[in-house]
């Protein structure tokens, strides 16, 4: 069989594909793989742009490990420890939480990934006070190279816990994940087109003044779309009766128009035109930037955080020091204008606080994430190479699941706990059962 990721830029031919439906079956699959002399990699949605799951050994699809195992509530805080199968998709998790009056503290903008894949590659959202998904993990069960299931938590096999909650699956296959959820909340979303220069001049206030702030800049223009999301109590603007129903219906229609018509159908057309007529791209970007209208609405948090992406693309994202955002964007702008590179996709900028997860791209510093995208049918190498040089010049750290060319020599200089991670990985998997060429490149072994 041939396995292909979502972006269609990675393929692999595993010796066999297995889909365990229980932890016992997962353990047995690992034992049989080792007995047969195969390496092992796990896969969820295949949403990584890097060959994180690629293997010529045994590929374990975790989709059937999607059970909700238990919910343990703290009556004083309303928070809950939620244990789920590692293969559960984020949209399934969001649904389970909402049904119980709970929510994730923060989310990325796509909910198709598996829980294991999202935390293992460092998926994050935006918000100066709210860390990525791995910062909410409170315990894990890991199937090691001998097939044994080991529980890891901050006070139980601490190093294995740290290396497994964000580590590309290099210590073993995750079976269950325990995540801390919070009481459900709504988001008041305000989306407005702004001049890019105004965004950059007021950036500190925008980041500090919104719970979750991000913006999209359209290359070859000085225009941006700003997104300011403020947390409010669940049902704050719900109202009652017919009026509430009409507002919800109107919101659903607007959401359909924005996401399915503007963000997907129309945006897909824009990219197809840009592919056929490259000279039209600056005009198309200017039209797209100016066609955006302001909107303001309130909805459950996961409905605001997550959007549906139908237009296929390639992506590189680096975490840079927050103070370097303007320099990075100025240099990207100067490079695009000097080369005339065909870039119909906007650049996405998000924010995160410093955290203490060993391989988190926000480890130890307040962070801005700058993501460059390219339509999947357009060349990306020259654009991404230039962007990567700009990112690394300011000490950028590549997203573990998105396109980059860095290796262990570079990455070791970016993470203070890098050697601690490598020791924990060696202790957990001394024979390299869970290695593949990508993990060998970034971890050197």
What's a quick, concise take on this entry?
With 445 residues, the protein is α+β, with helices and mostly antiparallel strands. It has helices at residues 23-35, 90-99, 115-120, 158-165, 196-201, 203-209, 241-276, 281-291, 301-305, 325-339, 381-393, 408-412, 418-428, 437-443; strands at 3-4, 11-12, 16-18, 40-43, 58-61, 68-73, 80-85, 102-103, 137-143, 149-152, 173-183, 185-195, 212-217, 223-233, 295-300, 313-321, 347-352, 367-375, 397-398. Strand 13 (212-217) and strand 14 form a beta hairpin.
Cα Rg: 22 Å
Task: Give the helix proportion (percent range).
Answer: 25-40%
Q: What is the residue-mean pLDDT, rounded to a whole number?
A: 91
> What is the 3D shape?
globular
Structural class assignment: alpha+beta
Task: Compile the SSE list and pairings.
Blueprint: E1 3-4, E2 11-12, E3 16-18, H1 23-35, E4 40-43, E5 58-61, E6 68-73, E7 80-85, H2 90-99, E8 102-103, H3 115-120, E9 137-143, E10 149-152, H4 158-165, E11 173-183, E12 185-195, H5 196-201, H6 203-209, E13 212-217, E14 223-233, H7 241-276, H8 281-291, E15 295-300, H9 301-305, E16 313-321, H10 325-339, E17 347-352, E18 367-375, H11 381-393, E19 397-398, H12 408-412, H13 418-428, H14 437-443
Parallel strand pairs: 3-5, 4-5
Antiparallel strand pairs: 1-2, 6-7, 7-11, 8-11, 9-10, 9-11, 12-14, 12-15, 13-14, 13-17, 16-18, 16-19, 17-18
